[in-house]
Amino acid sequence: MTTNDEIPCWVYRSPRKEEMYLYLPVEDDFSALPDSLLQGFGTPAKVMQLTLSPSRKLAREDVIKVMENLQNQGFHLQMPPKMQVDLYEGD
């Protein structure tokens, strides 16, 4: 991948798991997804379309990793962030 590469990308959210997102290089093309993933994800709800490039910043994902996954496996799955619970121990 060169620094001039750009990839169109469509982002979908899961109705079953909050903050789980699916990135696809082709709009509404879920053919690269394993059936078990799609069943667990639920019916994808389109959130946005964007163009990925190595210089683009993503909030929680490494754009290079997302681009590689789109090119190599046909999708990228963004998992919900891990919860870190700070327990209040009182005074």
Word description of this protein:
With 91 residues, the protein is of the alpha+beta class. The protein has a single domain, classed as YcgL domain (NE1680-like fold), CATH 3.10.510. Helices cover 19% and strands 24% of the residues. It has two helices and four strands. The chain has a four-stranded antiparallel sheet with strand order 3-1-2-4, with helices on one face. Strand 1 (7-13) and strand 2 (21-24) form a beta hairpin. It is globular, with a radius of gyration of 15 Å. The termini are far apart.
Question: Strands, helices and their partners?
Answer:
Elements: E1 7-13, E2 21-24, H1 35-41, E3 45-52, H2 63-72, E4 76-78
Descriptive labels:
single chain; 91 residues; alpha+beta; NE1680-like fold; four-stranded antiparallel β-sheet; 4 strands; 19% helix; 24% strand
